[in-house]
UniProtKB/TrEMBL annotation:
Top-level taxon of the source organism: Bacteria
Keyword Ribonucleoprotein: no
Record organism: Embleya hyalina
Name by which UniProt lists this protein: TetR family transcriptional regulator
Domain named HTH tetR-type: residues: 2-62
Length: 214
């Protein structure tokens, strides 16, 4: 196999699915690729850089999702965008752990800016739009972290683990509460921008610079 950056990342994601994030190592990856461990450092300076590339590759399906169009309703788009983010995190074992703390790159920043402009053009106040994007991203990552942790606990046990919660239904219920609350704030702001509910501090983090992001 000719080793290049792309197939190193692809094999690393396959290894992740087989053994989990804690067991991924450059030694195991080199053995899988049939190369000496130092040869991996030609493509990645260290494991942290490799994990960053893995996180970016794992998010490729979400990065390829259609961007919102002017005729879309912000609520429908926000729901589907968040659901798609969750589906992408679930595609790989420990996908949420891999993604948590990763930083968006150039193309990601352009997509996030497009999404923010869409929300603003749809009539959402800027601070609420920023907080909603940030909250949705962190809510989704947290939900998937718990879901994948439950799955990990079931692996290797002699007795089947009976789920105590329907993860998808619980996620949808929380997401609906979030969007319903946002819709109320938007309605109040349009009725009277001067006396709308306080959107909070003016120095909220910009979702284009604060991971994770939906």
């Amino acid at each position: 196999m000719k080793v290049n950056r792309e197939n190193v990342v692809g094999e690393a994601l396959d290894l992740l699915d087989e053994v989990g994030l804690d067991a991924v190592s450059t030694r195991r990856l080199a053995k899988r690729l049939g190369v000496e461990q130092p040869s991996l450092y030609y493509h990645f300076r260290n494991k942290r850089e490799l994990l960053g590339a893995m996180a970016q590759a794992a998010m490729a399906p979400h990065a390829a999702a259609p961007l919102p169009r002017p005729g879309d309703h912000w609520r429908d788009w926000f729901l589907e965008n968040t659901r798609d983010f969750r589906r992408t995190l679930l595609m790989h074992r420990d996908g949420a752990r891999l993604h948590a703390g990763s930083m968006p790159g150039g193309a990601d920043l352009d997509r996030i800016a497009h999404k923010m402009q869409f929300l603003l053009a749809s009539g959402l106040p800027e601070q609420d739009a920023r907080m909603a994007m940030l909250a949705a991203g962190r809510y989704t990552v947290g939900s998937v972290l718990e879901e994948q942790a439950d799955t990990a606990l079931a692996v290797g046990t002699d007795h089947p683990v009976v789920p105590t919660i329907d993860n998808e239904s619980a996620f949808e219920a929380g997401l609906a509460l979030m969007v319903d609350g946002l819709a109320q704030r938007v309605a109040a702001w349009h009725q009277d921008p001067h006396h709308a509910p306080d959107a909070g501090p003016t120095n909220l983090p910009d979702p284009t610079h604060t991971p994770p992001r939906p």
